[in-house]
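[[Sequence with tokens]]
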Amino acid sequence: MSEHDDRPEGERLIARRDFIKKLTGAALVAVPGCADDVMAGTDGPDSSSSTGDASTTTTGGDVPTTGTPTTSTSTGDATTTSTGVDSTSTGDDSTTGTSTGEPSDMGAQPQACESEDLVFAPDAVGEDLLRFPTAVMAGAMRPESALIHGRSEQPEPVLLRVWQPGDVEGSVRLVREIEVAPDENGYLRQLVDGLCPGQWYRYGFFGTDNGSPVARSVLGEFRTALADDALEPLTVAISSCNGFDNWPWPALQRTSDEYYDIFLHLGDMAYNDGEMGLADFRANWQAHLAAADSGGMALAYARAGLYCTLDDHEVTNDFNPETVDPQRLQDALTSYFEAIPVTDTLMDYRVWQSFRWGLTAEFIVLDCRTERKPSTMNSADPIYISKDQMAWLKERLQSSPCHFKVVLNSVPITDMPTIPWDFASNDRWEGYAAQRQELLDFIAAEDIANVWFLSGDFHTCFVSHIEPDGAGVVAKTREIAVTGGNTNVLGDFLAAPQFSFGSSRPHSCIITFDPIADEVLVRFIDPDSGQDAHSEVLSQE
């Protein structure tokens, strides 16, 4: 493992943004009516003072799901333009919210994009990984909101601050300051809205003494989704299959040195196969997300906000939803929604949802595991994803105004080579052939261009044509698969013309979706050397 980029954080991020702009040959689009789009992390190292006690208290850790795991029904409308919660304005200029901790009022007191200048150097506050032992994460990013997540080992409320770099060294523009109380399991969970589209923000949880920060979590950063009319290149990092045998996940450590607007995790984030109850699931998640000793997850999640789906190992290997112990499934999903910021909407454990980034990309998150009905596999009507999810997926593909439709797919949809891959075809889309064909026929009939599938599960890295003998737009549709931890030797034998890259080794994978050039740049980075093992520019033209 080569050394990480040790430049100051703001310098590192600005350099990477400039690199991406040069790479794509396009300037970033400014959002009218908002502050300048500055990169987070450029505040100086000077000592700081606090503004005093926060006047907001929420209870963190409320899992935004109710009841037991169930197949949800689609509402029939898009879920990409709302924060999923109501917000109430105080009518004043304060950046401090008032929140009851309920989903309908989670600290949202927006006067659009307002901030308060504050003498404060977050990095100068001592990092306390005994009190804040796990990764900090932002998720469910919308144009004006994000869900902030962490964990505390102490029961006292902590201070969540969200800020942008100040105009003067040693100062910040404080955007939100909210006191968050951990739940009974220590989780800190806070929806922050009233933010500005397409902006970078930094955040952290702080323990206080008489109102002054004296200890902090790892500091994180996230970018809000683009405004609905924005069009610019977006860069994402993808990973999957982070088995503990590969800890601390060098590929994820390497990823954290790159620039990306969003982190996409495609499943098997935690391997829970041996866990026997909710307490075991929770403990295993905390071990996977540990921030000490340069854990790759904590490093990668601190660099950008997260969208994710689950796969089988979040529950147990190759589980059958029709026969799995219902209590095990409930414990697995409860711990999943607790441990990471999956969603900002109450959805009864529903994983599938979508997030729009302007006119550039819509990120369509599928659940390819919990709704399967293996008993139907060989019938005329196989169910790989539920009929409600399929109808919703078609609606999003057809009606999305975005240039790229990016599908977080968990398990590959590619028509894999018959030998030796088909011995396990029942574990993927190909095993449910009629429903797979239904989806591809829909894409073809509606002539939906620029559908890009992103997948994990196979413990390989590859770039493929999903249907090498297909016609029309389906023949041009690609899939990009990644492993960030586990390995599969078969990946080394994936060959042209169907596969432009195949590898059994974990890699960092960075993808830039450029709607202006109508191109997708894919980079697989060797985690040991830090050099590109493979890069190519793809287009469906």
Observations:
- Residues 158 and 207 are 5 Å apart (CA to CA).
- The first strand starts at residue 57 and ends at 59.
